[in-house]
Specification:
This protein is an alpha/beta fold. It folds into two domains: 1-115 and 153-330, ABC transporter type 1, transmembrane domain (ABC transporter transmembrane region fold); 360-597, 3-Layer(aba) Sandwich (Rossmann fold), CATH 3.40.50. The chain is built from 19 helices and ten strands. The chain has helices spanning 3-11, 16-21, 23-55, 65-118, 129-169, 173-221, 223-229, 232-282, 287-304, 306-312, 314-325, 402-410, 451-456, 464-473, 477-481, 500-514, 530-543, 579-585, 587-596; strands at residues 362-369, 379-386, 391-395, 417-422, 425-426, 437-440, 518-522, 548-552, 564-569, 572-577. A hairpin with a 2-residue loop joins strand 9 (564-569) and strand 10. Helix 3 (23-55) runs antiparallel to helix 9 (287-304). It is elongated and about 115 Å long. It starts with a helix and ends in a 5-residue tail after the last helix.
Length: 601
């Protein structure tokens, strides 16, 4: 393999841990693969010997019983070994990719949260929805195929070729060296040449495909704007150009593949002819062995032929691992602990183990967060605590760091210095806060499934009675009862059967079912009209009574119903107190309140 590929595989932190974790399964799969290849060659060798012996019409059929029995044993054993090898290799690959998909979704979630927070300060990663679509649609499959269709076949082919050369060397060392040279050219030199010739085209195809996904995503998300602007024809023309670029690279790769296939088969033909010539000379006194040796070559050729095709796939498969390694899923995958969330071993904070309500629900102790490349901290030496059951409004201009502060509480971001405590315990990490922290964002997602299944996302074992009870508490039950099948009605993609306020209420119902003691509201009313905002806010405040609530918002609608108001600016709180207290003591708060209500006089 190219040195760059080997270096990348050594530095890989997404897939390499699974080699250590499942090393015995991998060793078994490779060993069985080599054994299946050897049995294929042995089957043809014994069959050739049997055909040659039978052609001489022996005096007794019993002289053929041993080769006949061997043909039966090897013929039955070969597919069994191959099947078990497939089971072992695919078991490892599917375990790996299922874990990779979970980690990928976690990394995408963290990236999304980071990008939302970065809108308030320094810019984060440049991955967009199109890149995410390329990752989800292709890259995990590329990682799986890298090992199933590239690494495993190449290793098995090289090992089988080495065994064949060693076996041939017992009869003629000089000819074994010649055969080793020919197999080396077919299984190593030609794949390297083909890889070099097609690498650039494959990378261009990968880039063109990613660009196509990005354009497709932009067109779907902005379909209304495109239609209103009358630019549909331009968008389609751009799609045609991008699809044409992909097709052009496909044609270029097809030409390289055809040339490579011709050269590989020509080399194997030379090897086959040389084997016939050598066996007819060296084994002239053993006619049965000549046919056996020649027939044995054909399964060997079938094993080494795909090496060039497999090697050509290395660039696009390895770039998938590079893209994955650029993501942070918040997990430390080492040894047999692969797949265990970082920090989970320190103990997951849960409602059952949380300290008494006298303990602050959230505590920041001299927390500072500085983003890479940012000239100044987003959060700087911030110390505060929120008592259990307290409701706090977090105000601030766009870019002040409100979403960043919420991300620190969720565990999506870790402080550069200082510590964050939840319910008196060190923050357990983003994976371990499920069940402790609930979140309602600006645009809560509603899945294209039934109302009941949307609610069961928060609590999989929720009964229909529990679902009806929480819907009633948030005032959504009458709307759901008007659906043709009630709870079992499908709400459509992104909840198109529901209004914006109803989607927010459904998200609130999930929080109630999950029964999380701490609820984060990140601009929960953005995009709602004032009447709907008031109705949803009233429903939330009523339903979340007794829980700790932190609401990040730009304006002061309903802020008088909160226990506490804090204004975030320059990395710290410049205002902090109850609404009544601030209304009496802070001129700035009074101006903010008047401006929010439209009373500029």
């Amino acid at each position: 393999m190219p040195r760059g590929v080997l270096c990348m595989l050594r530095q890989d932190r997404w897939v390499a841990p699974y080699f250590r974790r499942y090393r015995w399964v991998l060793a078994l799969a490779l060993g069985l693969g080599v054994l299946a290849s050897v049995l294929a060659c042995l089957l043809m060798f014994i069959s050739g010997w049997l055909i040659g012996a039978a052609a001489r019409m022996p005096e007794s059929i019993f002289s053929l019983m041993v080769p006949i029995a061997l043909v039966q044993v090897v013929g039955i054993g070969k597919p069994i070994v191959a099947y078990v090898e497939r089971l072992a290799s695919h078991d490892w690959a599917l375990r790996m990719t299922s874990s990779l998909r979970r980690r990928l979704f976690l990394a995408m979630e963290r990236l999304t949260d980071t990008r939302n927070s970065a809108a308030e300060g320094a810019a984060s990663g440049a991955m967009g929805a199109g890149d995410a679509l390329a990752l989800l649609n292709e890259d995990v499959a590329h990682v799986q195929n890298l090992y199933l269709r590239v690494v495993f076949p190449i290793v098995i082919a090289w090992a089988t070729a080495l065994l064949a050369v060693l076996a041939l060397g017992t009869a003629d060392a000089l000819y074994a060296a010649w055969m080793a040279l020919e197999l080396f050219v077919v299984a190593a030199v030609l794949p390297a040449v083909s890889l070099a010739a097609g690498a650039a085209a494959r990378m261009r195809r990968k880039q063109a495909t990613t660009a196509f996904y990005q354009s497709l995503t932009d067109a779907v998300l902005g379909a209304a704007d495109v239609a209103f602007a009358g630019r549909g024809a331009d968008v389609l023309a751009r799609f045609d150009r991008q699809a044409g670029a992909v097709a052009a690279e496909d044609r270029r790769l097809a030409r390289i593949d055809r040339v490579q296939g011709i050269v590989v088969r020509a080399m194997l033909a030379v090897a086959a002819v040389s084997l016939v010539a050598w066996s007819s000379r060296a084994l002239s006194s053993q006619g049965d062995a000549i046919l056996a040796a020649v027939l044995c070559f054909f399964p060997l050729a079938e094993i080494v032929t795909p090496v060039s095709d497999a090697a050509e796939l290395l660039p696009e498969h390895t770039v998938a691992i590079e893209r994955l390694n650029a993501l942070d899923d918040g997990e430390a995958e080492t040894g047999d602990s692969a797949g265990v969330a970082a920090g989970a071993s320190t103990g997951k904070v849960s409602r059952a183990s949380a300290p008494a309500s006298a303990t602050p629900a959230v505590c920041f102790d001299h927390v500072t967060l500085t983003r890479p490349g940012a000239p100044q901290p987003t959060i700087e030496n911030l110390t505060f605590q929120i008592e259990a059951g307290q409701k706090m409004a977090l105000l601030g201009r766009s870019g002040a760091g409100k979403s960043t502060l919420l991300a620190l509480i969720r565990g999506d971001l870790m402080p550069s210095s200082g510590s964050v405590l939840l319910a008196g315990c060190p923050h357990p990490g983003t994976d371990a806060v499920h069940g402790l922290v609930g979140v309602i964002g600006q645009n809560p997602h509603v899945f294209n499934t039934t109302v009941l299944d949307n609610l069961r996302i928060a609590k999989p074992d929720a009964t229909e009675d529990q679902a009806l009870e929480v819907l009633d508490r948030i005032g959504l039950l009458p709307r759901v009862q008007r659906f043709p099948r009630g709870l079992l009605s499908v709400v459509g993609e992104e909840g198109r059967q529901l209004s914006g306020g109803e989607r927010h209420r459904l998200a609130l119902a999930r929080i109630l079912l999950a029964d999380t003691p701490l609820v984060l509201l990140d601009e929960p009313f953005a995009g709602l009209d004032p009447a709907t905002e008031r109705a949803v806010f009233d429903a939330m405040m009523g339903a979340l009574a007794g829980r700790t609530v932190i609401m990040a918002t730009h304006h002061l609608q309903g802020v008088e119903r909160m226990d506490r108001v804090a204004f975030l600016e320059n990395g710290g709180f410049v205002l902090d107190g109850s609404p009544a207290e601030l209304g009496e003591t802070s001129e700035r708060y009074r101006r903010l309140l008047a401006a929010d209500r439209g009373d500029l006089a």
